[in-house]
Amino acid sequence: MKKALIFYGGWDGHTPKETAYLFKDMLEVEQYEVTVSDTLSVLDSYESITKYDLFIPMWTMGSISADQCRNISRAVEEGAGIAGCHGGMCDSFRESTDWQFMTGSQWVAHPGGEVGYRVNLKPGNPFTEGLEDFSIHSEQYYIHVDPAVKVYATTNFPVVEGPHSSNGKVDIPVVYTKLWGKGKVFYSSLGHTYQIFETIPAAKEIMRRGFLWAAR
Hints:
Layout: E1 3-10, H1 16-29, E2 33-37, H2 46-49, E3 54-60, H3 66-77, E4 81-85, H4 86-90, H5 97-103, E5 105-109, E6 114-121, E7 134-139, E8 142-145, E9 150-157, E10 170-180, E11 183-188, H6 195-199, H7 201-214
Parallel strand pairs: 1-2, 1-3, 3-4, 4-11
Antiparallel strand pairs: 5-8, 6-7, 6-9, 9-10, 10-11
């Protein structure tokens, strides 16, 4: 039986606890043994986390110690996976460039706040196969992205006017993967709150596929 560790906390606006337990339920259906923690101290010991096949962070902002970041980075490098969504993974620990290097991007803006936008799926990949493009009303994440990532879904900016509009239309990744040593990294910028996954089946299915792909 594969083992997953979900750790949640940080800004409450992203419903970290509710999202963490929604993900727990998803993985238990897939016969995973899931541990849920509301503290980063679970990462204090490298030896204690080597048993996990998958890490799911749900921690917006906050701070991670250098040792904690080093431990999880090493565990992924050695073959565990890490997968997450929205600010729970790629707006975590803003001061930690090591975290950003591993996870592949960093949130910088969501122009207009919650807006209506389109998610455009790329065909011919295991994350979006059989799914169709969809519209969503939520935070449209403008992220700075590692050029090493492989992109499976995008969204088009600008939806609302702002200083970024002068650059014209640009596509920003919504779903991507990358590798970290022997480990795999999966990210979706969807998931401002847990309700996104309850109301948009495609968003939930993409996360499910991402979890299964990333796990050791």
